[in-house]
Amino acid sequence: MKDFYDFNLKEHNTFGIDVKCRRFIEFESVDELLQIVNSLTDADKPLLVLGGGIGNLIDRVLNGEVVDYINLLFMRFAVFNFADICVCVGVALWVLVIFLDEVHADDAASKEQ
């Protein structure tokens, strides 16, 4: 897992805009993803949802439409764009973190009894 702060996104965005993000994390396994989820602070949790939503909003304002470009050929469900994926993954991670917090709270309460 690689964790970068003040990471330059110029090589990773569509128009090569020289902009930095506060935190950029690369992971290669489910275990690393779970480590990331467990390390999120309350301020970090909604960032993927907001980032994805803002990406779709920018497309809507600048282009008049949101361009979908990821077509999963193995499942005939929908066509996505990266912002859609960020929103879905962000919400899923947020729910997972809330669920894990509840499980840990229940475990702690049962140990106290």
Write the topology of this structure.
Blueprint lengths: L1 E7 L11 E7 L3 H10 L7 H17 L6 E2 L7 E2 L1 H31 L1
Antiparallel strand pairs: 1-2, 3-4
Helix pairs in contact: 2-3
Strand order of the largest sheet: 1-2
The outline comes out as globular
Strand/helix succession: EEHHEEH
Strand residue percentage: 15-25%
Number of extended strands: 4
Structural notes for this entry:
Helix content is 51%, strand content 16%. It is α+β, with helices and mostly antiparallel strands. It has a two-stranded antiparallel ribbon. Strands 3-4 form a two-stranded antiparallel ribbon. The protein contains three helices and four strands.
Which tags fit this structure?
3 helices; alpha+beta; two-stranded antiparallel ribbon; 113 residues
Quick gist of this model?
The chain has 3 helices and 4 strands, in the order ββααββα. The model has no long low-confidence stretch (mean pLDDT 75).
